[in-house]
Specification:
It comes from [Clostridium] hylemonae DSM 15053. Helix content is about 45%, strand content about 10%. By secondary structure, the protein is α/β, with parallel strands linked by helices.
Length: about 190
């Protein structure tokens, strides 16, 4: 699968498209353009690094989906010889501009690298439940100094964009992960 990326559009064409969108829409009417990729395993390293260069040039945030599924946990070593998080760190894509969407299947080392880089992880509890992806280890992320934000993902993986529902599920799911109520994050922390 990873080898098929060579048939994708030229990174120069993709970046030109981004730059046109940036010129037309970024910082207009309160909007921001975010450099986003579906997931690193669906992009070439060249494209990721061109994206980072573009994000730096235009002062853009970035996001990508990482470790949403068990399959991504298993294929990282196959594709890169390491976890996907380690790979994006090694190529320089893991920065404080990056928000990783999902992060359900991260291990302690992944969390440590993300915390050290100052990157964020978007917790999408309703989407993760709907897709059967798993439960993000919220408390462990916080313990590893990861900035965790809340998200809803897209309409194909969530039936709405309710942040109230997202906060509720984020609070409830941590209770399934650890029965010791003393470890639960309070509402203010969530």
């Amino acid at each position: 699968y990873h080898g098929l990326l060579s048939s994708h559009p030229d990174p120069d064409e993709m970046i030109e498209t981004y730059e046109e969108v940036i010129r037309r829409w970024d910082r207009k009417d309160g909007m921001r353009v975010v450099f986003s990729t579906s997931a690193p395993q669906r992009c070439t390293d060249e494209y990721l690094m061109r994206g980072l260069k573009t994000a730096l040039k235009y002062d853009l945030p970035m996001h990508t989906h990482i470790l949403e599924t068990r399959m991504q946990r298993a294929t990282g070593p196959e594709f890169y010889g390491a976890s996907i998080v380690k790979h994006i760190k090694d190529i320089g894509f893991l920065t404080d501009r990056l928000t990783i969407i999902h992060g359900v299947w991260m291990d302690e080392e992944d969390m440590r690298m993300i915390g050290e880089a100052g990157a964020s992880v978007a917790h999408n509890p309703v989407s993760n439940l709907k897709l059967g992806s798993g439960i993000m280890p919220l408390r462990r992320m916080v313990q590893n100094n990861v900035n965790v934000v809340l998200g809803t993902d897209g309409m194909s993986s969530n039936d709405g964009y309710s942040m109230f529902e997202t906060v509720k599920f984020a609070a409830l799911l941590q209770k399934v992960m650890d029965a010791d109520y003393k470890t639960w994050l309070d509402a203010r922390s969530i």
